[in-house]
Amino acid sequence: MNTSLQGKTAVIGGSTQGIGLAIAQELATMGATCILLARNQQALQEITAALPVPYQQQHSYKVADFAHPDQVRQAITAIVAATPVHILINNTGGPPPGPIAEAAEDAFLTAFNQHIICNQILVKAVIPGMKEAAYGRIINIISTSVRIPNKNLGVSNTIRGATASWAKTLSNELAAFGITVNNILPGYTKTQRLDSLIQNNASRRKVDPKVIEQEMLNEIPAKRFGEAAELAAVAAFLASPAAGYVNGVSIPVDGGKTGVI
Ligand SMILES: NC(=O)c1ccc[n+]([C@@H]2O[C@H](COP(=O)([O-])OP(=O)(O)OC[C@H]3O[C@@H](n4cnc5c(N)ncnc54)[C@H](OP(=O)(O)O)[C@@H]3O)[C@@H](O)[C@H]2O)c1
After folding, report:
1. One CATH from 3.40.50.720, 3.30.70.1050, 1.10.260.40, 3.40.50.300 for 9-187+227-253
2. d(Cα 18, Cα 177) in Å, to the nearest integer?
3. Of 33, 42, 35, 26, whose CA–CA distance to 8 is shortest?
4. Residues 90-133: pLDDT tens digits?
């Protein structure tokens, strides 16, 4: 099975911690040259310097806040002017939690900008280089809420469905050019995002965070939370030459939590 990413360049969003960071580490290990995107410049600097370099890759980063799509446009324009991008990982922070009936209208617009509009800007910039290379892997980190909405994540559930529809449409348009578009649907994965969701839910319900944690674990057949590295392994496969005929799918990586076939 060909899983080598030697000679490939990957742009990875939201990669200073959690799932994005784990994906950058895995892609770098497989030989890709990684370009990280996030807001925290110091973290970007330190993480970029510490990424694996089995083929003496020159990893780099750009600072961009996905709440400001123009910053994303500026960053990706500079990237594609310097190098073709073969792998794009669309990933950023999730929308704040809360019941949908209490969500402010603006929260939907903010989430739409941060997820769909930024993804669209990134994709339009990388498509020409992917077409020329006849190799493209667009991987969107979404959520199992594409299939079954999560409690207390009203805005997030809404935007995840839109992202999955956007991705499926794109996969149909790009398949003939050797470009695949696939989604990873993380279940409960041990990252700072999960910690903050547990804390938020505990404060809202005025219970100990351990109660919330146990309720979440009870929903998972594997009876444990996922590791970011377990999500990254699936992303790495989808990014590889071996996954060339996998297109337009959404793969839950959730310890069996999503209760649909
Ligand atoms: N963890 C889970 O259980 C879980 C489950 C389902 C879905 N997800 C989704 O999967 C994605 C990644 O989750 P995660 O758990 O890895 O999240 P995380 O631990 O909160 O990490 C988010 C990453 O995105 C970056 N980021 C956040 N806001 C940004 C912005 N406005 N502009 C640019 N970068 C931004 C952060 O870096 P900076 O602070 O440096 O910008 C960080 O590197 C999120 O969309 C999350 O909602 C997670």
Report:
1. 3.40.50.720
2. 31
3. 33
4. 999 999 999 999 999 999 999 999 999 999 999 999 999 999 99
Measured in whole angstroms, how far is the alpha carbon of residue 187 from the centre of its chain? 13
Q: How many CB atoms lie within 10 A of CB 41?
A: 12
pTM for this prediction: 0.98
| Spatial separation of the C-alpha atoms in residues 98 and 203, rounded to whole Å | 12
Are the beta carbons of 84 and 33 closer than 8 angstroms?
no
Separation of CA 176 and ligand 1 centre (Å)? 31
Q: Is the CB of 20 under 6 A from ligand 1?
A: yes
**Cβ(94) – ligand 1 distance below 6 Å:** yes
Q: What is the pLDDT of residues 137-180, one digit of tens each?
A: 999 999 999 999 999 999 999 999 999 999 999 999 999 999 99
Q: Is 61 in the pocket of ligand 1 (CB under 6 A)?
A: no
CA distance between the termini of the chain: 27
Which amino acid appears at position 86 of this protein?
H
- Contact of 47 with 16, CB cutoff 8 Å: yes
